[in-house]
Amino acid sequence: MKFISTRDKNRVVSFKEAVFQGLSPEGGLFVPDSVPDLSQLFAGMTAETPFNEAASALTAAILKDELSPDRAAKICERAFFFKPELVDTGNGIFIEELFHGPSSAFKDFGACFLAASMEEFLQAENRRAIILTATSGDTGSAVAQAFFNKKNIDVVILYPSGRVSPLQEKQLTTLGKNVTAVEVKGNFDDCQRMVKETFVSQDMKYLPLTSANSINLGRLFPQSFYYMYGFNQLKAKYKNIIFCVPSGNFGNLTAGVYAWKWGLPVKEFIAATNLNNEVPLYLESGKYEPHPSFRTYSNAMDVGDPSNFERLKNIFNNDYKEMGRWIKGAWVSNEDTLQAIKDFYAEKKKFIDPHTAVGYVASSRYMAANKPEDTAIITLSTAHPGKFLEVVEQATGARPALPPNLEKLLKLEKKSVVIDNNSATLKEFLKKNY
After folding, report:
1. What is the pTM for the complete model shown?
2. Of 107, 150, 235, 328, which residue is the catalytic one?
3. Is 432 a residue of the active site?
């Protein structure tokens, strides 16, 4: 398989090239140039198939021109020392917990696979790379944890001083070694601008800079693994399986749709958003109207113009009716999000984070409206509730415990480099240290 740009079909690259380029030069996103039939591969898997084994098999099948089965297995073994966990809520709705990785968020799957892939490619060619990225919190922590101690890779993460949570800051600033946290005296927009200006600066071309942002194909591709895994757990018990995906930037849903296109027999998908509901509205009318994002309790989904939606439209050839046949839109208010967290805790004695709550509400509404027989809905749970202590406590009156991997960070010493909010200071720092 090769990969092409959504904006220039003549630009054809390998997976390795797509991973290190991130974006196509004209601004397009890299997508597969063909649709392989992997239905027999999926059919041969069972509920007992280990996550790593399934991930390795899919990687080797998709990237067989670039990675041998042994190299694919090596990448997945390095990346995934964690796996999803499926929880039965007792009403035909299952929650697939994706927060058992190092930063306790679903982004660990993509970030860890990207880091392991880059490390494999770089070591084979005996060259280095510098990951330069900006974060408003969660993405940076996943990248920092994933790339920590990776060979041939240095990581520089910019974050706005005083504008990330104490826990997020600890995730960025307590690692050291090949991970440097740069604390910018400004806001997230400043951090993003500084990174972009540095990437295009001619006097920085001598550095092997690359990115690890969420539209990188190396982060998108491995998200298909947990659709395959969740489906395997239930396919012997249910005739129809639906995935409900809390959606912000729409990379998570896009990965699931790719798995379906490759032969995973998913019945359909539910795209669950908060008040930033431009995609559900598009599925109804065919009109896509991006807007400045609205702030909600499920803040990682506060995206008014999701970048990965370009990939989704590419898959369905810009046909909103065809997209709507397979993807049902739903959106959930702030009030209903809080109520779902409260009710879930009262009924199940279990915490869920606000993003999972959006998915759970959408799944419950679908079940109530359609009353499907022999059907299970797998709702993706994207973050540990401990990462959203204030919202969960507001809803339930109780405070979820942090997972041990996050609890221990609070006791570690913060180490960061503080700079002004302009690209000149960032470039000076890079020239001096790399």
Report:
1. 0.94
2. 107
3. no
